Amino acid sequence: MSQNPPVLRPDLARATVPDGPRRADQPTIGMVSLGCPKALVDSERILTRLRAEGYAISPDYSGADAVIVNTCGFLDSAKAESLDAIGEALSANGRVIVTGCLGAEPDYITGAHPKVLAVTGPHQYEQVLDAVHGAVPPAPDPFVDLLPASSVSLTPRHYSYLKISEGCNHKCKFCIIPDMRGRLASRPAHAVMREAEKLVEAGVRELLVISQDTSAYGVDLKHEEARGHRAHITDLARDLGGLGAWVRLHYVYPYPHVRQLIPLMAEGLVLPYLDIPFQHAHPDTLKRMARPAAAAKTLDEITAWRADCPEITLRSTFIVGYPGETEAEFQTLLDWLDEAQLDRVGAFQYENVAGARANDLPDHVPDEVKQDRFDRFMRKAQAISEAKLVAKLGQRIEVIVDEVDADGATCRTRADAPEIDGNLFIDEGFEGLKPGDIVSVTVDEAGEYDLWGRL
Fold first, then answer.
1. Among 39, 114, 436, 453, who pairs with 158 as Cys (CB 3.0-4.6 Å)?
2. Which residues make up each annotated binding site?
3. With 60 as the cut, is the pLDDT of residue 62 above it?
4. What residues does the TRAM domain cover (predicted)?
5. What pLDDT shows up at residue 446?
């Protein structure tokens, strides 16, 4: 068991690629998956297609005929990590295909690593497959390979990410995701539902709904209805809630219609959990970010959400040290956090990203000031988190089991998303538990981010 403080960099989610049996002379592809859960879904789709074409999947470089590196381009530090991963794959294997968000800047990649075989952008599945075919021709066994039993998953079997759209229509000055992934492109609701049904049928107990802007889902489709399902986030959430699995909503932009989701949480159709990237609280900072600048109104919304669903958990991420942020603006953010009392909070220090408009803003904050503000912000968030968890002592709550080892069971409450939030640990009487079990526990100990309980 290991404690799980919140991830402070929301762009990092290096995946573990599963290994599997291989036949003699079967072409083998390795995969390194970096970036957010949306990139993780892209990696799963690529690997599923490759396995259907007869390729074996390798979890390491040495056993592979070529390696795919799915990159992140969210921040300059994430770009540097992606370049390091490409270099590592080149050194260990020599035959590397690059895809993902950083692939939208091919000259940047080839300038650092001219020996890569190919570079493709995010969610360009066909181009990735073409590059693999060119490097390592497929050799399928028609009796074994062409009908894989299920999709390749890079998450545990009991939960899965469900991507409902690509791209984003916002123009936040610190972000280049729309430049890399394009404008909002929603999947038809019936296609999302079919995928969700198949996942639940395969044993998935929790669906993590992701996109770049989940609350805008269906806007580009004019919320059309097809095959009995309407492309609107409220309708989709209600439909997903009818499948019997936990449904968790991520990356929900705070539009007014988000309040329509709260009754679904109160009814138990959707987990009472909202992941909303507020980014800041001072109106001037938000304007420089090109974000909605109505933090006071947001506090009213939060109050209304909690009135309608008292058990709701609110998660958010914030940027500290944004260009032009004064001490007074930062203090406003701390005061707002005191009032909002968010349950789960992550933050990262502002970084320039090549191509982002925020780079050209005046009055960039010195690194030492950014670090100081980050530390003060996280101390405040940590204190709020600890107080909220202490208040759960003695409560009986439902948890999902993620892992069981010799020391105990690592679980999550309905208030905790995998990887980014906390855990609940059971260290007695856990022997009969297995991953995916949903059980009721009594909380008997609380820390800064984690809980301990007993069956």
1. 436
2. 36, 72, 101, 168, 172, 175
3. yes
4. 390-455
5. 95
